[in-house]
Structures are given as C-alpha cells and as structure tokens.
Amino acid sequence: MTDIPTTAALQPVPLGTTNPDAPRADSFVTLPPGVARIATLVGVVGTVVSTFMSWTYTSDFPGDLTVNGYPGGLQVLTLIGAILTGLVALGAFGVKGLTWLVPNRSPNAVLLLAAGTFATTWYAVIAIAQELGGLANLNPGGFVAAVASLVLLVGALGLPIDRRPLDDSDAEYYELGRLSENGATRGAYRWLRSARLNHRELPVSDPAKAPLWVQYLIVVVVAAVGVKVLTYGLATGYTELFVGYLILLVFALLAFSAAGLTRQFSKITGDHRPFSMSVGILAAIAYPFVQNNEHWANLGVNILIFGTVALGLNIVVGLTGLLDLGYVAFLGVGAYAAALVSGSQYSIWSGVQFPFWAAALTGMAASLVFGVLIGAPTLRLRGDYLAIVTLGFGEIFRIAVNNLDGVSGPKVTNGPNGIPNIPDLSVFGYNLGNPHQIGSITLGRFANYYLLMLVITVIVVLVFTRASDSRIGRSWIAIREDETAATAMGINGFRVKLIAFALGASLAGLAGTVSAHVTYSVVPNPYQFSGAAPPNSAFLLAAVVLGGMGTVSGPILGAALLYIVPEKLGFLQRYELFAFGVTLILIMRLRPEGIIPNRRRKLEFHEEEALLPTQRPLGDDTIAVGEAGA
Asked: 180 or 350: which carries more pLDDT confidence?
C-alpha cells in the first residue's frame, strides 16, 4: 500500500532539499534573493522611464510613438504593465500598504506580470522593426524599453517561485507511452512538470473579515474597472494595439489568480451574490453609455444573442451531457416564426403584426415544438449516434427553409431570399429603431436592442440557474455522469433528456425572435453546422466548451471572445475556422474544463487536486477565473 504523505511532508521546504513530495520555492535563474529583488525593481523603473521616450522616429507605425514625454499606443500598455508589476512586487516583498495586492505572499504574480510586460514590450519592438523595415527604425527609447523589460523578467525569474513538487526520478509518465523508456526524454518531461507554477494551495486571508462596506466597494470597483478595460480594448484602433492589449490582459488575469486575489473576490461575490449580480447588471447597462458607438453596440447585441443561445445549448451539452451538433436550427426556427408574425410585407401573413411579447412567445413555442418533435424519436440514442442525428436535423432545417419558396415546395419562407424588411420592435411605445436622447448621450438603434437583449439574457440566466439547481437539474447532472446508474436510481432518463432538449430549444427560439428584428431579415444560409461567421452550430459549441460547460458566465464569455477577437484581428478572418480548431485543441489539452470551470468538472479533469490536503482557509467551493492557469 502506498504511504500517504504526512502534513509535515507537504509543507514548503527551503532550497537544496530533496523531499520529492513537498511544494517548493525555487528560482528559475540562480541569483541571490537581494539581487533578484533589486533587478526586478530596476527593471520596473527602467521600463516606466522608457515609455516617456521616443521609440521610433516616424509616425508611420500606428500610435505615434515618436513623442518624448507622452506615452502613446503600445507604450501605454507597457507603462501599465510595468506599474502593475512594481506595485505587486512591492506587495510581495512585504512593503506596508501594498501587501493586500498579494494575499498569499507568492512572487508568482510578480513573475507573470513581468512576463506580460516583457512580452508586450518586445512585441511592440519587433512589430516596429518588422513593419518599418529593420531595427534601424528604433529610437533609443525602444532599445531602453527592450533591455529594461528583459532585466525585469530576469529579476523576476530569480525570485523564489512557488513550483510543483519534484517528481520521483524513477516515476513513469504514461503520457509519453513508449518514450518513457528513454531516460533523457523522461528527465526532460520531469523537468517540464516541475517547472509549472504551484500557488493554488497557498493560504490567503478571509475577505469576509473586512467591513461589509469594504466588500461592497470592492465589487463596485472591480465592475467599474472591468467595464473600462473592456471598452478600452474595443476602442483600440489598430491590430498591433489590440494584440498587445490581449497579451497584457491574459498575463494580468493569471497574475491576479497567482496572487490569490481572484479567490478572495470569488469569495466576496459568493457571499453577497444578489448584490454582486445587481452590480454586474448595472455594469452591463452602462456599456452602451460608456462605449457610445453603434458598431460596438451591434457587436454587444450579437454577443448577448449568441451567448443566450449558447446558454440554452449548455443545458443540453453542459448539464445533460448530450452532444447536439444542429442546435443552431432552433435559433432559426424562432427567428423564422417571429419574422412570419411581425408585419413583414414579404411574410405569407403580411397583414399580421404581433406585439413583441406575442412574437417572442410564438418563436419560443415553435422552437419548443420542434425540440420535442426532434428529441422524442432521437433521444433514446447515445453518444456519436445522437450527435450524427442532431447534425442531420440541422442540415434538414436549412435545406427545408431553402426550398419552401413556392417552387420546390410550399411558399412559406421565400426560399433563399428569406423574409426581409422586418419592422423594428416597439416596446411600450418605445420604438427601438429610432435614436433616443438620454441626457447628453444618444442611444442608437443597436444600443436600444442591446438593452432589450440584456433584459432577455437576465431572464434566461435566471431560468438556467433555477433549473440547474432544481431536482430536474440534478437529474440532468446524474444523466451526464452515468446514465445507466441514474436510471438504476429511478430517474426516467428519456423524460429528463427530453425536458432538457425542449427547454434549451425554447431559449434559443427566444433569442431568435430578437435576432430577426436586429438583422431586419431572416435567410437560411447562416443556419448551418459551420461557417466563416456566426451563427452556426460549431460556433455555439465552441463558445460552450471554451467558456466552461455547466456554468452560467462561461458560454457568454466564450461567445464574447469568439466574436471580439476575429473582429479586432482582421488577419484572422480568412482563417477563422482554422483558429477555432486550434483554440479548441489547446483548450482541450491545457484547460479542458474551460476558462470559467464548474468545480465538479474541474475535479474530474484534475483528480490529483482532490487528493491534496487543502490549506485554504476560505473553505468554500468557489473556483476563480484563471485559477488553474500557469
């Protein structure tokens, strides 16, 4: 029998020990601790100073980096990264007044921020050289930035980083297969495993001990900063700036997790869920006012529409474990049903114009009926067979509406021409198609639809959470984990799966009713399995998997990323499907539970974490964004 390590054996040990079971604090670069700290702070100062120097002599590079004393473009990102790194480093070094930035006192956050600042700076320098034709186009400020950020990174690598326990030198790695017989390969793999950062089990203080008003203030400040960061990213005017923004943002999120801040924030939001949700909704409402641009309002509408549809798919895939490859058809059913009764002159019922609430119910009912009709004969199948049948249903829907043109079949959908000229919605006399003045801000058409879709998204989130926490929701999870065992325990598997299928379809139909009015028309081409642009089933499934199956915010975050990144990175639009595939492969390999993981699914994919004795004083089931990163 394998001996269970004692508590003493699991405590961090000083450098030079050989206990293979103990977490360790070990640097990547051999430097005296004092020298590493000085190098880190010198790198911070040098990087900050470099941003006030000219990086290039010509304004041909976007952002105008030619001005001395005034950072611009990518220099601003480097400045922000250096300042954050300096503040976190001082907190990790124990400077009074800043220790709250690093609750677990781990230098891992310093290393991640230093790496993000280095990557952003060097990306800017390389982009300048590549676009302008060589390093000769760099002014001294650019070289100072490159050297200072490198000094910062080296200094951070010399800090005592919390890393994984050392593996036994005789350990076999089944991931390597036959290569495990090769000593060199096994040694390299052992080093790579031990190089991974390990800060998840470091204790942090309980934020519930802080005064209530402080906890509320933290939630408000984080929401406000989140809106500002989002709008800054959307307002980036060129590709290079957005790439630098993404680099710094990813490393910053990983660093906040490594510092223990995200665990504390998750604890606060979990303890004050109603207040946190209210602040989150207010932050979402503020979006069209802060980012008063119709293009980005239109993007926000589409993110909410397909995030809502992805939530419906999350019931089927994330909670019930059924792989549906034709889910976009239910969005199409709701859109067509609403278009037929919303007063379009090209509808077969052109004289009929339902009010919005009636059109929404019509779309939901139509999708619900189709969900039951499709689910009843197919849900007795499992696995790949069910996936193939749902894929066939999605293609049948697209082909059917394409042929209901009065020539190949009855005239219902106008075939490839679809149903255009759908009138704008009017809700309680408020015409969403007209701009409206609120104070000094003008809300345009897409801003109006964004606010309407936000209300619908909140309703769908409430339905999803109430359903997942109910008795039927626990039955869905039981079916997902082991249908045979669930059936043996008395759960009617077919009925439970049919309810999930029908509820998910009706939520997609509800979103489809708004989608039809936002786009002014409904045509069959978008409702396919995959394509260069959403909506399509592959996009929705990727949003659920990327964001985190079984969670509320995961699919919405996934839809946002899959929409915004191709929108801002124009060169990816020709390779969008390729990028989707690469992203899914990476997420399955590195973080199969998704960006925002469900705790149960996270432990399924990382069983070793369930076996480690926790040192967390928080004592809850909260999972923070990015906690499994690095």
From this structure: 350
